[in-house]
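re: ur question from yesterday

yeah so i grabbed the chain u mentioned. its 211 aa long if i counted rite. heres the sequnce exactly as i have it in my notes:
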Amino acid sequence: MAAIRQLAYGMGTDKRDQYFRMLERTMRECVYKFCKGICLVYVQRYLRKPTINDIHQLYTVHEGKHGFPGMLGSINYMHWGWSLCPNAWRGQYMRGDHKEPTIVLEVIASNDLWIWHALFDPASANNDINVLDQSSVFNDIYLGKSHDIYFQANGVAYKRGYYLTDSIYRPLSVFVKSFTCPNDPKRKKCKDEQESARKDVERIFGVLNRR
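ran it thru and got these structure tokens back, copy pasting raw so excuse formatting
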């Protein structure tokens, strides 16, 4: 209970010592052991990056469902309201377009609601670009440790998969954006299909907001 309340309310160990009648050191150990236990139980199945078999499955499922070969998922972010943010930190997490402090949550999700990448941003990094700059999602690509799983589209072979995004993200080869102003039926259809496929990650945010 001590660990859960610390994680839920974001307070330091010295704030709850009288409530739980526990030493500050004991409170820290509770949080450490609780988080370690969560990792031991869930990391192998849920808190991991996709394997080669997972990537092949993502390719197959997304191409069959959305018609996009080589699609790994959709990447997006949401503002997670933090109504119990400590007063000393409120200024770091406030934005003019939100009435309460928020933490930005970056997510990559597949069509079956599997969140295989999630990042809560640090203070003051409150948009897609700042969060992406501090994200570890592309570290393996930078370090040359990523799985190069080829796929073909329109007779052209590509080295690795991609993510569907909106227009704010940088023009990188791993991002596929919809057309801003499509001027022919083919581009309009592609835009509609891309925006429909990106609803996978929007469903994730809908589920999380029912907490």
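noticed a couple things. The longest strand covers residues 71-81. also The two ends are 19 Å apart (CA to CA).
anyway ttyl
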